[in-house]
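Explain my protein.
***
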Amino acid sequence: MKKYLSKFNLWSLTFIFLWIACINVALADDSRESVLGPGDLLKIFVYGHPDMTTESKVSENGNITFPLLGEILVDGLTPSAAEKKIANLLESRDILRNPQVNIFTASLQSQMISVLGYVRNQGRYPIDGKRSLTEILAMAGGIIPEGGDLITLIRSDGKQFFKEVIDVSEMVRSGDLSRDIHVRSDDLVYVERANRFYIYGEVQRAGTYRLERNMTVIQALSVAGGLNPRGTERGLRVQRRDSHGNLKVLSVKSSDLVEPDDVIYIKESLF
């Protein structure tokens, strides 16, 4: 019972951790700016000159079109840097004196990541400044009950893809937030399914259950409600696939560990 309470506390801690991350997303400082790129839709205002208000989409070449200035390269600039660049061009070309330019990003299509797998809301999400892995999970609504502890991150350096696996529960348990890495544009975050085991035969609730870490056969039996009046712990059998995918039937003890996708069979007592 103590082990299950500790596991419950760990899941509670994980939930609280992601909840805090979700709050941080909602209260994120606007100073954390993303750089602009192709596909971004910008709304540009010049204070005191409503005739210069314009909406422009960053082209594939990284340019926007602005009245009286024509094409301006903004690819790789933050919105504040783009504001300064436009203001300097307006002043250097004797169009306006001390112009005040404001840029609002109506849509950031160039800074997106994909979140897939066992999260509440799969999809593509914009990166508004620096975002950590847990913040992105919070933006996707968190991990659903069927989701596991392992998060796979796939990213590219432009030439090849790299994969990194992060154990979220272990990160929370150890308090090592160095694994809460910052995501980048075009990253793919995939939440794995939780490991499962199957139990059938003379138990109260036969079915499929989540496999907890270091779960023993007797613990798996308790999750299924224990033996029914006809069941016995003698002659426990487990169906398990080996590394080659071959199915084997093994005799196990109640203290043995359950492995992912094990099928536990509880026999009927002869007496």
The longest helix spans residues 2-26. The two ends are 30 Å apart (CA to CA). The longest strand covers residues 147-156. Residues 113-193 form a domain with the Outer membrane lipoprotein wza fold like fold (CATH 3.10.560.10).
